[in-house]
Amino acid sequence: MNLFEPTVEPPVTATVVVCVYTDKRWADIVAAVESVRTQDVLPVETIVVVDHNEALYERCRAELAGVTVLPNAHKQGLSGARNTAIEVATGEVVVFLDDDATARPGWLRALLTPYADPDVIGVGGIAHPRWPVSRTAIHDSGRPSTLPGGTTRDATGELDWIVGCTYTGQPTEQAEIRNLMGCNMSLRAEVFKRVGGFAEDIGRIGRNPLGCEETELCIRARQAYKADGREVRILFEPAAAVDHRVSDDRVDWSYLRRRSWAEGLSKAAVSKLVGQGDALSTESKYVATVLPKALLREVKAKRPASAAAVVTALGFTAAGYVRGKLPGATAHVQLPAESTAGSASSVSHDGA
Hints:
Elements: E1 14-20, H1 26-37, E2 45-50, H2 54-63, E3 68-71, H3 78-88, E4 93-97, E5 101-103, H4 107-112, E6 120-130, E7 175-176, E8 184-188, H5 189-195, H6 213-227, E9 233-245, H7 253-274, H8 276-279, H9 281-300, H10 304-325
Parallel strand pairs: 1-2, 1-4, 2-3, 6-9
Antiparallel strand pairs: 4-8, 5-9, 6-8, 7-9
Helix pairs in contact: 5-6, 6-7, 7-10, 9-10
Keywords: Glycosyltransferase, Transferase
Domain Glycosyltransferase 2-like: 15-195
Organism: Pseudonocardia xishanensis
């Protein structure tokens, strides 16, 4: 940036949302909120939503200054907490930051700048993993053998989606994408008014590793706009960067298996809601091109554990998807508009 040029303000205002559920992450919560407070562009408000934890709610109210603290008014889980914030957010764009992620300088400005284009309805950024100390690290970056990938501090890995981070195969510069990643994403407020909130029958509840609620919402939004004859865009902007802390329990084999299985189940649920073609459009290319290269690299490098991790993740994800497609497996899953007495544009719902 030229220091003699005036700073250009983003074209939209923003509400930043941080959803929390356990006081075991208190230090992370404080760090996340502080990283928003120190941005060069400030949101009109920061909302912290506490997911059905009265003690944590009272602590947040007492110790987090300068933020709005709300209890989750909906079904327990991340989707319900997000929907609670959406209902009261006043910014033109609603930005979501995970409670164990910290935003790097310039993050919010980078997320908001692309909204100068009226056809952009969502922008997401990159999430860099911050690994725990591990005896199974495969190189100096601290990357564990269960999540093989690049050797530098900010390098991606093919399985980093397992820990909610940007993975190899995603763009490395600003580009249009199918869906956003939950720990670092933003959407225009008008999207929620148009298509409703996050589906509360899928997504994370506490430590349950189910997900894909962001995928479903992004696909649903694009389909809704297209039905009205408008082509909209969702962008990946790597200049909007966060550091996402990875806890010890998420680098072991049991979590790899559980998260992969849950991803398959979640994709089956999403395919029920928005159709199999849209639900698996990105995954088909990933499985056909990205994973084989990773497997070959780890075999050549004589890292059998890492090669096994690639095979394990693919196998458990596929098995979870097959299980989720069986009759009745996703019978409880409904769109937000189907689980509320209001109109399709309502974001206030209790879930099924």
